[in-house]
C-alpha cells in the first residue's frame, strides 16, 4: 500500500514539475524597423486584380480566357519596377514566373500565390463580387483573401524595394498559377522548370496559416501559424447494388441500408490518431503559452495523450483534424423515384490524410471498417500528404522573424495545414516549404473564403505588404 502511495506521489510531483518547467522560451526583445511604402497604391493594385474575373472551373469550357489574359497584361502597369527589373516567363497552364536576380544565383527563394478564384453566387453577395468596392476601410470581392492579396503584397513589396535600390543576396522567384482551385498543372509546371534548369531552392512561401486568435486550447492571444506540411487528399466512392424493385415490398439490406451501415461504421470508428512532427512542434510551442490545465496535458503527453485524443475525438473540428485522417461524407446518389428501390446507390467521402497515413493505408482502413463485400470502395482521386519541412534552419527563422516583426506580440508556431495548396508540389525540390497567408483575420472573415461576401480590411492588406517587404529584405 505504502509503495503504491509513494509511487503515486512521485508521479504527481513529476507531472507538476514538468508543467512548471513548461514555459515559453525567452527571446531578446527587439524593436522592428518601421516600414513605409505606398499604401494607397497597394490598395488600388489589389482592387485592379480583383476586378479580373479569373474564375477557374473543372469544366474548362466555362472559363473566360480573356479575364486571365487581362490580369497578366495588367501586371506591368501595376508593378512597373518589377516589370523593368525582373525576367518574365509564361509557362503552360497559366503559370507565370518573375525572376528577380540577386547578387548571387546559386540558390533562389520562391514567393507563391494563385490568381484564379472559385465561382460565386452573385445574388447572395451584399456587394458585387468583381467590382472591388472600397467602403469603410474594406475591399469587397472574390479573391481579396484567396489569394490575390498575397500576390499583390509580394509584387508591391518587390516594386517598392526595387525603387529603393535594394538588390537581394539571392535570386527571388515570384511564382503564380492560374488553376490552383481546380488542381491545375500550373504549379507542377513551374517545379518542372526549376528541376530542368537545375535551379536550387532555398525556401518557398505559399498560402496557408495566418495570424489568428482563440484557435488553440487555453491560448487567447494572437498566434502566427506557419504550415510546415499539409495533409493529403482523397475522394472515395462507396457503391452498393441490388436487383432494385418496388418500395412496397422491400427485401432486407437494400443498397441504401448497406451504405447507411457503412457510413455509421466509419463515423463510429475513426482513424487512429498520430502525433506528427508539425503537430508535436505546435503543441510544444503554443502549449507553453496555455493555461495551467492544458500546459499540464501538453507537458506530459507521455501520460495524457489518451486524454487529449479523447478530447479531440469528441470535439471534432480543427484540433481533431490535426491529429488524424478525417472522413467527411459529402455526396449521395440513389433512386430516381421515391417509390423505387435503386438498383445501385452510392455515397462519396472527402478524406484528408494525416502525414503518417497514405492513400493505401486509408483504403485498407475503410475496407476493414465497412466490412461488407457487397460495397465497392473506389478511390476517385488521391494525393499523399506533403513532405514535412524543417524548422531548425536559417530559412525558417527568416519567415518566423518577418511574422513576429509584422504582428508584434503574436506567438509564432509551426502547424499542420489541413487544406491542400499548390505548395505540395514543391516537396520534390525543397524541404523548406512554408505555408503562411500573411493576414490577421477574424473567424468571420475566414468564413468568407470560398463563401459569400469575401472581403479584406485595408489594414490587413497593408500588413501583408509589410510582411513581404521584411521577408524579401532578408533574402
What does this structure look like?
The chain is an alpha+beta fold. About 35% of the residues lie in helices and about 25% in strands. The chain has helices at about 1-20, 40-50, 65-80, 80-85, 150-165, 185-195, 255-270, 275-285, 290-300, 300-315, 315-325, 360-370, 395-405, 445, 460-475; strands at about 85-90, 95-100, 105-115, 135, 140, 170-175, 200-215, 220-230, 230-240, 245, 325-335, 340, 345-355, 375-385, 410-415, 435-440, 455. The strands form four sheets. Strands 1, 2, 3, 6, 7, 8, 15 and 16 form an eight-stranded mixed sheet that branches. The chain is globular, with a radius of gyration of 25 Å. About 45% of the residues are buried. The mean pLDDT is about 95.
Helix content: 25-40%
* Span of the ends, CA to CA: 64 Å
Q: What Rg do the Cα atoms give?
A: 25 Å
Indicate the low-confidence ranges by residue numbers: none
Number of helices: 15
Class by alpha and beta content: alpha+beta
Strand content: 15-25%
Mean of pLDDT? 95
Global geometry: globular
* Major sheet summary line: 8 strands, mixed
User: How many individual β-strands?
Assistant: 17
Structure at a glance:
The chain contains 15 helices and 17 strands.
Detail the topology: elements first, then pairings.
Elements: H1 2-21, H2 39-50, H3 65-78, H4 80-85, E1 87-91, E2 95-100, E3 104-114, E4 134-135, E5 138-140, H5 148-163, E6 170-177, H6 186-196, E7 201-213, E8 222-230, E9 232-241, E10 245-246, H7 255-268, H8 277-286, H9 292-299, H10 301-315, H11 317-323, E11 326-333, E12 340-341, E13 344-353, H12 359-370, E14 375-383, H13 394-406, E15 411-417, E16 433-440, H14 443-446, E17 455-457, H15 458-473
Parallel strand pairs: 3-6, 3-7, 7-16, 8-15
Antiparallel strand pairs: 1-2, 2-6, 4-5, 5-17, 7-8, 9-13, 9-14, 10-12, 11-13
Helix pairs in contact: 1-9, 2-5, 5-15, 10-11, 13-15
Amino acid at each position: 500500500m505504502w509503495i503504491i502511495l509513494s509511487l503515486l506521489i512521485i508521479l504527481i510531483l513529476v507531472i507538476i514539475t514538468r508543467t512548471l518547467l513548461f514555459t515559453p522560451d525567452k527571446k531578446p526583445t527587439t524593436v522592428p524597423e518601421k516600414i513605409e511604402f505606398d499604401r494607397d497604391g497597394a490598395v488600388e493594385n489589389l482592387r485592379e486584380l480583383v476586378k479580373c474575373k479569373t474564375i477557374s472551373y473543372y469544366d474548362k469550357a466555362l472559363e473566360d480566357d480573356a479575364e486571365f489574359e487581362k490580369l497578366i497584361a495588367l501586371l506591368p502597369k501595376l508593378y512597373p519596377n518589377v516589370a523593368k527589373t525582373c525576367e518574365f516567363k509564361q509557362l503552360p497552364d497559366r503559370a507565370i514566373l518573375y525572376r528577380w536576380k540577386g547578387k548571387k544565383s546559386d540558390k533562389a527563394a520562391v514567393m507563391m500565390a494563385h490568381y484564379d478564384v472559385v465561382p460565386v453566387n452573385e445574388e447572395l453577395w451584399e456587394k458585387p463580387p468583381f467590382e472591388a468596392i472600397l467602403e469603410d476601410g474594406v475591399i469587397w470581392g472574390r479573391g481579396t483573401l484567396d489569394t490575390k492579396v498575397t500576390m499583390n503584397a509580394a509584387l508591391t513589396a518587390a516594386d517598392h524595394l526595387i525603387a529603393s535600390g535594394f538588390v537581394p543576396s539571392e535570386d527571388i522567384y515570384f511564382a503564380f498559377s492560374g488553376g490552383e482551385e481546380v488542381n491545375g498543372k500550373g504549379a507542377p509546371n513551374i517545379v518542372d522548370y526549376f528541376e530542368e534548369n537545375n535551379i536550387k531552392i532555398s525556401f518557398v512561401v505559399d498560402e496557408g496559416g495566418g495570424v489568428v486568435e482563440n484557435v488553440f486550447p487555453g491560448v487567447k492571444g494572437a498566434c502566427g501559424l506557419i504550415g510546415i506540411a499539409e495533409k493529403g487528399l482523397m475522394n472515395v466512392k462507396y457503391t452498393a447494388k441490388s436487383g432494385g424493385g418496388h418500395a412496397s415490398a422491400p427485401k432486407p439490406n437494400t443498397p441504401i441500408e448497406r451504405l447507411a451501415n457503412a457510413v455509421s461504421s466509419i463515423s463510429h470508428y475513426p482513424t487512429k490518431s498520430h502525433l506528427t512532427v508539425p503537430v508535436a512542434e505546435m503543441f510544444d510551442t503554443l502549449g507553453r503559452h496555455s493555461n495551467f490545465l492544458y500546459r499540464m496535458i501538453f507537458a506530459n503527453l507521455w501520460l495524457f495523450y489518451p486524454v487529449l485524443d479523447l478530447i479531440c475525438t469528441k470535439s471534432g473540428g480543427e484540433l481533431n483534424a490535426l491529429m488524424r485522417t478525417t472522413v467527411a461524407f459529402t455526396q449521395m446518389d440513389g433512386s430516381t423515384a421515391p417509390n423505387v428501390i435503386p438498383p445501385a446507390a452510392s455515397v462519396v467521402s472527402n478524406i484528408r490524410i494525416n502525414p503518417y497515413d497514405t492513400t493505401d493505408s486509408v483504403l485498407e482502413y475503410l475496407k476493414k471498417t465497412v466490412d461488407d463485400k457487397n460495397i465497392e470502395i473506389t478511390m476517385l482521386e488521391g494525393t499523399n500528404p506533403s513532405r514535412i519541412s524543417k524548422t531548425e534552419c536559417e530559412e525558417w527563422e527568416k519567415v518566423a522573424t518577418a511574422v513576429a516583426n509584422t504582428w508584434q506580440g503574436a506567438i509564432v508556431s509551426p502547424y499542420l495545414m489541413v487544406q491542400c495548396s499548390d505548395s505540395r508540389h514543391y516537396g520534390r525540390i525543397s524541404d523548406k516549404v512554408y505555408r503562411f497567408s500573411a493576414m490577421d483575420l477574424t473567424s468571420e472573415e475566414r468564413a468568407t473564403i470560398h463563401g459569400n461576401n469575401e472581403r479584406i480590411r485595408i489594414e490587413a492588406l497593408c500588413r501583408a505588404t509589410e510582411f513581404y517587404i521584411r521577408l524579401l529584405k532578408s533574402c
